[in-house]
Design a protein that fits this description.
Strand order of the largest sheet: 1-2-3
CATH architecture of the largest domain: Orthogonal Bundle
Mean pLDDT: 87
Strand content: 5-15%
Number of strands: 8
Length: about 400
């Protein structure tokens, strides 16, 4: 049984003996200071202290002793940024973690790792929900969720390294948030959009039509090279993603999952447009780069050879919507949603749609595009009416 020692008024030290090592030397005991709630009777206080001693001893002896019980969260983060983060996270995720830590460290930096518990994490998250945003107002729940994920990831690494026994952020309270409705164009809007795109430059027409035809993400489209186009098979190999990191140039990286590395098939019309666009790129490359176009050149490249940034296409898309009177709710990502929704609405099975989009699980596709099954649901009810008369 752990021993209990009074230190000061309403302050007690719980000491757990750790026994002896293989050489017969006494191991350093583990200690914890507790403060009983105010207003307890002497007997109730004794009972409370005994319970705390029992719980602490059980906690201490249920797993290996932490590496360093005195290390603070800020000190661990310095080690984490130097030795773990560069090997584990992509450049863009590292930048996001650095931004999140600017909010986390002022609140939790001085707390010892072994004293960082779920109530402290909940209190921190609740405080973040009331903190101001850089753009004015209060930060969004999505931002809070991202900060929580960064904290959870760091603490998971601390568990693996033996600095703490469990991750206090794993089961910390997070309010349920309503999934933001996705916006997909219907068939008429999609046709209007295609007509508008055919009035644009061939580069922008090709980019947006390619995204609409395949459902690929804008960063995946920016990462395509000419070697990824199989003219004979009428297909495109999607296996790169371009991201723009703040204060840095574009970064080309591999897909997050195995399903993200995929081949999508193209229509003859799309292949014809790509051939026309390639001719344009060949002429442009000779005139401005003074060299022939290479198979390793990006389809959508800048004159310095680097891929165009996804945000440049996002900005251009907004101008196109405004110019041609199309719904302002549409975004580039809406093209991906439109592709998936129209395929599902016209009977393409979910597994095929998931494969086209690069989803690892069909459940992800089902969850996101449940609205697209309305037509099938109505037809299923009609089937029951025909069979059962109800």
């Amino acid at each position: 049984m752990a021993s209990i020692r009074k230190r000061a008024e309403n302050s007690y030290l719980i000491v757990v003996s750790m026994g002896y090592d293989y050489q017969g030397k006494r191991k350093k005991p583990v200690q914890k200071t507790v403060h009983p709630p105010e207003g307890l009777t002497p007997r109730a206080k004794e009972k409370w202290l005994n319970e705390q001693a029992l719980l602490f001893e059980r906690e201490v002896k249920s797993g290996p002793e932490p590496k360093d019980r005195s290390i603070t969260f800020a000190a661990y983060v310095e080690h984490w940024k130097k030795d773990i983060m560069p090997e584990k996270l992509s450049v863009s995720t590292q930048r996001r973690a650095q931004q999140d830590l600017q909010r986390i460290l002022p609140e939790l930096g001085r707390v010892r790792m072994t004293e960082l518990d779920r109530p402290k994490v909940r209190e921190f998250c609740n405080k973040m929900r009331k903190s101001p945003s850089a753009k004015g107002g209060i930060i969004s729940e999505r931002t809070v969720s991202g900060i929580h994920s960064t904290l959870c990831g760091i603490l998971s690494d601390a568990v693996e390294e033996g600095y703490i026994r469990d991750n206090p952020a794993w089961r910390a309270f997070k309010p349920k948030t309503k999934r933001k409705d996705i916006y997909a164009a219907d068939e008429d809007q999609a046709r209007q959009l295609i007509e508008a795109l055919e009035q644009c430059s061939i580069k922008h027409e090709t980019f947006y039509k390619l995204v609409l035809a395949t459902g690929m993400r804008r960063g995946e489209a920016c990462g395509l090279t000419w070697s990824d186009i199989d003219w004979r098979e009428h297909s495109v190999h999607i296996h790169r993603n371009v991201v723009k990191v703040s204060h840095m140039d574009t970064v080309v990286k591999e897909p997050k999952t195995r399903a993200g590395d995929r081949v999508d098939y193209l229509s003859p019309e799309m292949i014809s447009l790509l051939r026309e666009y390639r001719t344009f790129c060949e002429e442009h490359c000779l005139n401005y780069s003074l060299r022939p176009l290479s198979e390793e050149d990006f389809l959508f490249r800048r004159d310095n050879g680097l891929p165009m940034t996804p945000n440049s296409f996002t900005y251009r898309f907004k101008l196109i919507l405004k110019k041609y009177g199309l719904p302002p709710q549409l975004t580039i990502h809406s093209l991906r949603h439109t592709c998936a929704s129209l395929q599902i609405a016209h009977g393409v099975d979910v597994r095929t749609v998931a494969s086209n989009l690069g989803h690892s699980q069909t459940s992800t596709t089902l969850d996101i595009y449940a609205h697209a099954f309305d037509k099938q649901r109505r037809e299923s009810q009609k089937t029951l009416e025909d069979v059962l008369g109800i």
